[in-house]
């Protein structure tokens, strides 16, 4: 396990910095705006997706763990981004004019 960390410390650093960047950006949203913007703020996971793509691109052919973790990060980040936009769309529909029959 220690050999893995020693050989992939730069990739692990990218993932950790992506996590801190995402937390920092999300924490800057004021509490008053958090509810209407929370689903749109999930798009910040784009930073996680980019970090995961970088990790997957830098991984060696035999480094299955980096590839699997990068793939999972891309899939889960993408699901969160798409889900955030779906929730935003549903919230915006609530404020639209009601259709007359």
UniProtKB/TrEMBL annotation:
GO cellular component: plasma membrane
GO-annotated biological processes: NADPH regeneration
TM region positions: 6-25, 37-56, 68-92
InterPro entries listed in its UniProt record: NADP_transhyd_a_C
EC number annotated for this UniProt entry: 7.1.1.1
Localization terms from the record: Cell inner membrane
One Pfam short name: PNTB_4TM
Domain NAD(P) transhydrogenase alpha subunit C-terminal: 12-97
Gene Ontology MF, one: NADP binding
Its job: The transhydrogenation between NADH and NADP is coupled to respiration and ATP hydrolysis and functions as a proton pump across the membrane.
Protein's recorded name: proton-translocating NAD(P)(+) transhydrogenase
